[in-house]
Design a protein that fits this description.
Elements (H helix, E strand, L loop, with lengths): L3 E4 L1 E4 L5 H8 L7 E7 L8 E2 L6 H6 L1 H8 L11 E11 L2 E3 L3 H8 L6 E8 L4 E6 L5 H10 L6 E5 L4 E5 L5 E14 L5 E4 L8 H7 L8 E2 L3 E5 L4 E14 L5 E13 L4 E4 L3 E4 L5 E14 L1
Antiparallel strand pairs: 1-4, 1-18, 2-3, 3-5, 5-11, 6-12, 7-10, 7-11, 8-9, 8-11, 10-13, 14-15, 15-19, 16-17, 16-18, 16-19
Helix pairs in contact: 5-6
Length: 299
């Protein structure tokens, strides 16, 4: 079957920006696209395949084919365990908290949501509000939210391209400015908003219940393993010429962060900035040629 080119899903957001979208996807639209789902597979949403005459529903009905593409461990999960997005932010996303697995199972019948952001672009006035400056218990947090401006208690960090922001479940977080963020997360859409500039519903009681005192340090890395935890692994690989990449028979999702080239296979696949592909688990290794920056995600 070979590598599968994944069709992106474009979603409008109040903080979306068509110029940022064009900067990464080279696609122009009048709508405020703020989020592009690069890959998703669950009962509510399924990514489509562009280069093969087959869809995800057909794959999922064929257990043998499903195993070849997603690997043995796929059957341990109800849904594909990770969700990958690119965020195009012009303004401020809501101040929010995601629950961990324990809380989400009990109250939402869902995965929790541990996630990470890799900064593909940020202007000089972009800041992450990530975690707190000091330790607070849940009662103190509730009092601050009810009576004070919580933003003065947040850790504020200026971010730039190449920064890695790990966001464990329970972390209060937001971003303000102009940025393109590559987001890898557990496959969950549970977000508890504490503060929102676009008058969307808030979930303060649940946010306080899910809150943890996570102290976050923003790291910077241009290449190599960006993050590895119990939920996903993300690597950045730079290619100048030709390179062979091993998968160790794990399903791998590739997004081209920059450049262009091709995946060498029975039918060479041209790839360029903004594209996302799935390398099936049965492919133990593959070769890529060109001048490229790649983000590789596995679980």
């Amino acid at each position: 079957m070979g590598p599968l080119i994944i069709k992106p899903i474009y979603l409008e957001k109040p903080w979306g920006n068509s110029l940022l979208l064009y900067k990464f996807k080279e696609m122009y639209t009048d709508s405020n696209v703020g989020e592009v789902i690069e890959f998703v597979l669950d009962e509510n949403n399924k990514s489509n395949i562009l280069n093969k005459d087959i869809n995800m529903d057909t794959i999922l009905k064929d257990k043998k084919l499903c195993k070849r593409i997603f690997g043995k461990s796929f059957f341990l999960y109800k849904n594909f365990p990770i969700l990958i997005k690119t965020l195009f932010i012009n303004g401020e996303i809501s101040l929010q908290v995601h629950p961990d697995n324990r809380y989400a199972r009990k109250h939402e019948k869902s995965f929790g949501k541990n996630e990470m952001w890799y900064v593909l672009y940020a202007d000089e006035n972009t800041y992450a509000k990530i975690g707190l400056k000091c330790k607070l218990n849940k009662n103190a947090l509730k009092k601050i939210i009810d009576e004070e401006d919580i933003t003065k208690y947040l850790k504020v960090v200026k971010i730039k391209s190449g920064d890695i922001i790990n966001i464990p479940a329970g972390t209060i977080h937001s971003v303000t400015g102009k940025a393109i963020l590559y987001e890898v997360q557990q496959n969950s859409n549970i977000t508890y908003r504490i503060k929102d500039n676009n008058n969307r519903n808030l979930h303060i009681e649940k946010a306080i219940a899910a809150f943890k005192n996570n102290y976050i340090n923003v790291k910077h890395k241009e290449v190599g393993t960006l993050i590895k935890n119990n939920f996903f692994k993300v690597k950045k690989v730079n290619i100048y010429g030709k390179k062979k990449i091993k998968t160790f028979n794990k399903c791998t999702i590739i997004t081209v962060a920059n450049g262009m080239g091709k995946i060498i296979s029975a039918s060479n696949i041209e790839i360029r900035k903004g594209m996302t592909l799935l390398i099936p688990a049965y492919i133990n290794s593959y070769s890529i040629e060109g001048n490229l920056e790649l983000l590789l995600t596995s679980y």
